[in-house]
Amino acid sequence: MTALFIRDFRLALRAGGGALVGILFFLAVIAVVPFGVGPDLALLSRIGPAMLWIGALLAALLGLDRLFQADRDDGSLDLLVMAADRHMLGVTVLVKCFAHWTATVLPLVLAAPMLGLFMNMTPLAIGATALTLLVGTPAITLIGAVGAALAVSLPRGGLLVSVIVLPLTIPVLIFGVSAAYGATTESAPFLAPFLILAAITLFFAVIGPLAASAALKFSTD
Amino acid sequence: MRLVADKLSGERGGELIFSDLDFVIAAGAALLVTGPNGAGKSTLLRIIAGLLAPLSGNVRLEGGDGFPDVQSACHYLGHTNAMKPALSVRENLAFWQAFNGEARQDIDEALETVGLGGTDHLPFGYLSTGQKRRISIAKLLVSYRPVWLLDEPTAGLDKISESRFAGLMQGHLGEGGIIVAATHLPLGLDNAQELAMEGRG
């Protein structure tokens, strides 16, 4: 399993792996917001956490369609499915998701504080947003794995994956943003939405790989 | 150890392509599956590998010590090589060895066996078609499985590699392994049973 993690991590970082695409997209989205919204610093800092979350959500969805498709194209997926007796397929999917998250989504979380400066956010708001992203984004990858597994045999499944996945990620977005706001405003709670966010991630850490592995089993014909 | 198929029927896209297939392969024996395109050779291999569900019937492994079912006892060499072009040959093979377990030959030894010693540092994508196929054959050697399912294993191989691969298969059979190969070309295996699939011509 460590071997699978290392392989997928390496692949994401090497040429054509697409780890950089997500972070460049994130940078592009956040960099244009101040131009679109205008130089209203109060407004920027108010919408900052939401913009970071939306940017990170869309960037995280970008490379997801290749999660299993690359393995299907070169025949590796057959062998991963066949090893089900040795490595439960759900665990294989979970490890692949974790490698994908580490290589392509974790850099987004790390870049978020820097991009937060573009949005005139306070250090507390930046910290809270980065923390909620850290806890919430794995759920996006895990939900995305289900979409990626369903669309694995479709040649142009990229947009379809995003469309399947996006509605399911709305709760992650809602609780992520409300926890980030809760940390900065007096009237809103932080802990409750944050814990729900963590619960969503844990929930999909179980449901996502199981659903994805069921979809993959039917994709091998 | 025996690989037994019992009244096996397979379908592709809702159409029956073979039915009531029975065969028994004993340890140390090979089965060559031949027939025209579309006769269901690959489908049969994928059913044995557990990647497709049979329409009816079943395949089972009798006396496969340590391997609970057919799927876990199989190496499947399909049309594609299951290797990543961006990773080096060594990284590819090391991954499959670690993932499949039951380590057998080490990577240098396996590369030496397929005649590609010293290529371990090259990215897999730099190799020629035949060399890629040979690396993929080396994958069969780095971890142990008693049953080899080979789908057109010699596609793209030159004469020397073909005879070397025939030797490898003989060695595997000599150790009590089982080979099921779908092929158009003679594989150089004497005393192999042949299963001719008729197809629709």
TrEMBL record, chain A:
Bilayer disposition of the protein: Multi-pass membrane protein
GO molecular function: heme transmembrane transporter activity
Transmembrane segments: 12-35, 47-68, 89-112, 124-152, 159-184, 190-216
Keywords: Cell inner membrane, Cell membrane, Cytochrome c-type biogenesis, Membrane, Transmembrane, Transmembrane helix, Transport
Protein's cellular compartments: Cell inner membrane
GO biological process, one term: cytochrome c biosynthetic process
Keyword flag Lyase: no
Pfam families per record: CcmB (PF03379)
UniProt-listed InterPro entries: Cyt_c_biogenesis_CcmB (IPR003544), Cyt_c_CcmB_bac (IPR026031)
Function per UniProt: Required for the export of heme to the periplasm for the biogenesis of c-type cytochromes.
PANTHER family: CYTOCHROME C BIOGENESIS B-RELATED, HEME EXPORTER PROTEIN B
Family that this chain belongs to: Belongs to the CcmB/CycW/HelB family.
NCBIfam families: ccmB
Name this protein carries in UniProt: Heme exporter protein B
Automatic annotation (TrEMBL), chain B:
Limits of the ABC transporter domain: 3-201
Its EC number(s): 3.6.3.41
Enzyme class: hydrolase
Organism (species): Phyllobacterium salinisoli
GO terms of molecular function: ATP binding; ATP hydrolysis activity; transmembrane transporter activity
Designated name of the protein: Heme ABC exporter ATP-binding protein CcmA
Domain of life, per lineage: Bacteria
Keywords annotated in UniProt: ATP-binding, Cytochrome c-type biogenesis, Hydrolase, Membrane, Nucleotide-binding, Translocase, Transport
SMART domains per UniProt: AAA
GO biological process: cytochrome complex assembly
PANTHER family: ABC TRANSPORTER I FAMILY MEMBER 1
Keyword hit for ATP-binding: yes
Pfam family, one: ABC_tran
